[in-house]
């Protein structure tokens, strides 16, 4: 009986450990998926909707996407923000989207939308991790 | 496809999306999440109006 309880606790700890790695990773790649994999469907869906819409609106507004660079500090920070969007960033780079020159004010808003979408996804990833380790319900 | 949002609608969309994420990630219970999300949205929009009026006053 005692052995069975200990085995259960060990198995639970192992699954928590795996989830603490998998949930943030999948949450980074697909916004909100870190919550969905832990059965927080509504939260995950809302996060997905918010982050993906913000990113896609940024693209549709002719915003610019930052590439990896070692130049200006603001460009580097822009890249860090964009990378937060995970799969969306990879998809955008793969299709060569978001490369146009900024010609009007709202295009600059688009660039900021995409950076903020990435940063918001970082927050969502941290939240998924907190749920996985049991710090948050 | 190109979308052209004006300054205000861009601010509203931004506020909405950011507030939803803040609400979900910064609070524990559903009720608190909704309340905090609404609070953030109101603060974002309040800030937009405040900044708008401040710029209008500075311009005069």
Describe what you observe in this structure.
The complex is a heterodimer of chains A (137) and B (60). Chain A has helices at residues 2-29, 33-36, 41-60, 73-83, 87-94, 105-132. Chain A has one domain (2-132). The two termini of chain A are 29 Å apart. Chain A is built from 6 helices and no strands. Chain A is mainly alpha-helical and 137 residues long. Chain B starts with 6 loop residues before the first helix and ends with a helix. Chain B is mainly α and 60 residues long. Chain B is flat, with a radius of gyration of 14 Å. The longest helix of chain B has 30 residues, at 30-59. In chain B, helix 1 (7-26) packs antiparallel against helix 2 (30-59). Chain B has a domain at 19-59. Chain B has helices at residues 7-26, 30-59. The mean pLDDT of chain B is 95. Classes of the chains: A mainly alpha (137), B mainly alpha (60). Chain A binds chain B through residues 43, 46-47, 49-51, 53-54, 57, 60-62, 104-106, 109, 113, 116-117, 120, 123-124, 126-127, 136-137, and chain B through 1-7, 10, 13-14, 16-18, 20-22, 24-25, 28-29.
Walk me through the topology.
The complex is a heterodimer of chains A (137) and B (60).
Chain A: H1 2-29, H2 33-36, H3 41-60, H4 73-83, H5 87-94, H6 105-132
Helix pairs in contact in A: 1-6, 3-6, 4-6
Chain B: H1 7-26, H2 30-59
Helix pairs in contact in B: 1-2
Q: Based on the structure, what is the oligomeric state of the protein chains?
A: heterodimer
The helix count of chain B comes to: 2
**Class derived from helix and strand content of chain B:** mainly alpha
The tally of helices of chain A reads: 6
């Amino acid at each position: 009986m005692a052995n069975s309880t200990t085995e259960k606790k060990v198995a639970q700890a192992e699954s928590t450990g795996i989830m603490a790695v998998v949930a943030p990773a999948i949450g980074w790649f697909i916004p909100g998926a870190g919550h969905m994999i832990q059965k927080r469907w509504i939260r995950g869906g809302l996060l997905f909707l918010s982050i993906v819409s913000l990113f896609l609106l940024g693209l549709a507004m002719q915003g610019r996407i930052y590439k990896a660079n070692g130049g200006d500090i603001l460009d580097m920070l822009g890249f860090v923000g964009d990378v937060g969007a995970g799969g969306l960033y990879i998809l955008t780079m793969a299709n060569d989207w978001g490369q146009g020159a900024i010609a009007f004010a709202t295009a600059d808003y688009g660039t900021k939308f995409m950076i903020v979408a990435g940063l918001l996804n970082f927050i969502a990833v941290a939240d998924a991790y907190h749920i996985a380790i049991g710090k948050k319900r | 496809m190109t979308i052209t949002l004006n300054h205000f609608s861009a601010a509203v969309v931004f506020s909405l999306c950011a507030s939803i994420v803040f609400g979900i990630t910064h609070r524990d219970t559903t009720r608190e999440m909704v309340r905090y999300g609404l609070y953030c949205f109101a603060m974002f929009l309040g800030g937009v109006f405040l900044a708008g009026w401040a710029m209008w006053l500075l311009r005069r």
